[in-house]
Amino acid sequence: MIRKLNNKGMTAIEILITFVIVVIIVVSMYDGILGLKTRESVASYKLSLVTYKNLLTKEIQDDLIKIGLTSTSTESMKDASGNAIGYRVRLTLRDGSIRILEVKQVFGCNAADDLEANDLCGMMTEAQKNQNDDFSISYGPEGNLTEYPLPDLGHEDISNYNGTSGTHRVYSLRINEVDVSNANQVFSVRIVLYHPDLGSRYSIDIAAPINFSGNGVVDNTPENVDPPSIPTAELRRENSTGTVLNNTDTWRAYPIWFGNFNSIDYSGTGINRYEYSDGCTGSPTGILKNAGETYSKLKNVKYCIRAVDNTGKISDWSSPYYIKVDQVVPTPYVVEVVNERAPMTCDHTTAEMEAGVYEPIQCTLYAYDPPNGFAQQFNQDDKGGSGIKDEISYFNATGPNCQDPQNPGTFPWGQWNTNAWGHYGLGHCTQAEYRIRYRDNVGNESETLTLWIFYGN
To answer: What is the pLDDT of residue 127?
Structure first.
């Protein structure tokens, strides 16, 4: 008996199943290869960081221990515009020589687009958003520093924001935090490095005693002790755990927390207090709270601060810190309403309106016929806040002989207009409806003030 072979070949279902199996195998192999490559990259990153950390730590630590450290001072490094870009530590050694340690932190914005940049980097200026990352550590004798740039463990060139041509470079490895301390006559500096694949597990840590005589005694006589270093502080959004803010002379529409005061105590007795000078006049105004303080509602101050240790020695004043909060909405009110023929009489006084009256205000014109136009003056005072940015107004009028004037400079009736600033004509109408509200420079917007204007005889 002869068997007939099935020459129909593979069915569509069999082909589809085979294809799916091949895809699954390829994807699983790809994930495995990608994971292996990622592990190799992370291992390479770790080796680069450990090598960098050990080299720099040994270079600095050898000087501080073998020669001996007698005093230190720390100041903030600033760019040409006065923005803080890092720290400069001056180290005086026992042989009289000076070593300088500079830690530079310049952050560019790494947002995905303009909208995200305005959200994540809103406190930066346009120039700061589009600047290249610049992270480096420099060390050496004063006037002859050696720069130790961070290893390039990945970077991205991002298109500049808000229509600015070109790109700026941001690096994966960043100097995330710098802590300098002089507590208990021990100088220490901790430079925390951050990488997306490694987190903040790697840091450069240096420590050395100050004025250590070699027999376990620290030379802490008054004539050998400097006053505290110029203190630093932080501005944060809303509270002590909020986002750190740039110290700029700009208004903000949310509370600002001012705290984290820090000064190096060279006496070893501790910092007694931090004083502030309102307006940076050079004279102390009061004492700051150690826990910091949150400022809200309406606040516009410029503080310089200084540290006082427990021996009474006083640091120099810091650069100004700006605390400018505007959470108060503007209050529109009518200052004056007149027309070309006669004054208008309103049923609310200016004082009542200034206090914030939002119920409809009725003004009546007594004249022999309906006027062609009228003039009104609204206040443009933001009560000490960030200032009025926009007037948003709506105008409409009715009457038997009412005409919507089309003169140059007038704004259309029956719709909301921005910054019309009162340029509406009355057009022989007997009744007009005027609605207005204000928006200040940080976005606070008032309620709507309604003004009714009637013609009477």
So the answer is: 82
Residue 83 vs residues 72, 166, 255, 382, 392: alpha-carbon distances, Å: 23, 23, 22, 29, 36
Please state the rounded mean pLDDT for residues 363-368. 59
| Residue 24 CB burial class (10 angstroms; 0-12, 13-18, ≥19) | exposed
pTM score, two decimals? 0.48
Question: Domains along the chain?
Answer: 19-219 (no CATH), 227-327 (2.60.40.10), 334-456 (2.60.40)
Q: What 3-state DSSP class applies to 29?
A: helix
pLDDT tens per residue across span 374-416 = 556 677 777 778 888 888 888 887 777 776 655 545 677 788 8
Please say whether the beta carbons of 439 and 392 come within 8 A: yes
Q: Hey, is 143 helix, strand or coil?
A: coil
Q: What is the dihedral of CA 343, 347, 353, 355, to 10 degrees?
A: 140
Count Cα neighbours of 422 within 13 Å in the Cβ-side half-sphere: 17
Concatenate the DSSP letters of all residues of 432-448 into one string: EEEEEEEEETTS-BPPP
Q: Which two tokens stand for residue 184?
A: 């208990």
- Residue 179 exposure: Cα atoms within 13 Å on the Cβ side: 12
Alpha-carbon gap, residue 321 to 81, rounded angstroms: 15
- Phi, psi (rounded to 5 degrees) for 287: -115, 135
The pLDDT assigned to 38 comes to: 53
Mapped onto helix, strand or coil, the DSSP state of residue 300 is: strand
Q: What is the pLDDT of residue 217?
A: 45
Neighbouring C-beta atoms of residue 336, cutoff 10 Å? 12
Residues 6+ apart with CB under 8 A from 109: 117, 120, 121, 124, 128, 129, 130, 158, 161, 168, 170
Q: Is 158 exposed, middle or buried (0-12, 13-18, 19+ CB in 10 A)?
A: buried
| Tokens found for residue 113 | 């687009």
Across the chain, what does the average pLDDT equal? 79
CA angle 196, 198, 200 (to 5 degrees): 90
3-state secondary structure 199-230: EEEEEEEEEEEECECCCCCECCCHHHCCCCCC
pLDDT tens-digit profile of 329-346?
A: 887 776 666 665 556 667
| Most confident by average pLDDT, 167-181, 307-321, 336-350, 431-445 | 307-321
For the residues 412-441, what does the mean pLDDT come to? 77
Output DSSP code: residue 67. Answer: I
